Amino acid sequence: MTKADLVNAMAEKAGLSKADAEKALAAFTGVITDALKAGDKVALVGFGTFSVGDRAARTGKNPQTGEPINIPAAKTPKFKAGKALKDAVN
């Protein structure tokens, strides 16, 4: 499903115009992004939890030359599905 498909589905299901649905989606993703940047967790009961995880620094290998390279530590966004979402999918 693309972003356009998601906007169309949201507009149809919520009875909104496509422009309003796109604004709502942009606001939702913006709020989630801002919360994760601040180091907060966003928990939507029944749907899932968005959080930030830490990935340790490690040594990798350049696939072209085989030369070892250092990969720095990074923060990564994570999503853990809630029970209701898991049950709906299965």
Topology:
Elements: H1 3-14, H2 18-37, E1 42-44, E2 48-55, E3 58-61, E4 68-71, E5 74-81, H3 83-89
Report what the structure shows.
Helix 1 (3-14) packs across helix 2 (18-37). The chain folds into 2 domains: 1-38; 41-89, HU Protein, Chain A (Irregular). Helices cover 43% and strands 30% of the residues. The model has no long low-confidence stretch (mean pLDDT 96). The chain has helices at 3-14, 18-37, 83-89, and strands spanning 42-44, 48-55, 58-61, 68-71, 74-81. The protein is built from 3 helices and 5 strands, in the order ααβββββα. It is elongated, with a radius of gyration of 18 Å. The strands form 2 sheets. The protein has a 3-stranded antiparallel beta sheet. A two-stranded antiparallel ribbon has the order 3-4. With 90 residues, the protein is of the alpha+beta class.
Q: How much of the residues is beta strand, in percent?
A: 25-35%
Helix and strand composition category: alpha+beta
- What's the SSE pattern? HHEEEEEH
From the 3D coordinates, which CATH architecture of the largest domain would you assign? Irregular
Spatial order of strands in the largest sheet: 1-2-5
Determine the mean pLDDT. 96
Q: At the fourth CATH level, what is the homologous superfamily of the largest domain?
A: IHF-like DNA-binding proteins
The CATH topology name of the largest domain reads HU Protein, Chain A
Secondary structure tally: strands: 5
Q: Treating each run of at least 4 consecutive H or I residues as one helix, how many helices? A: 3
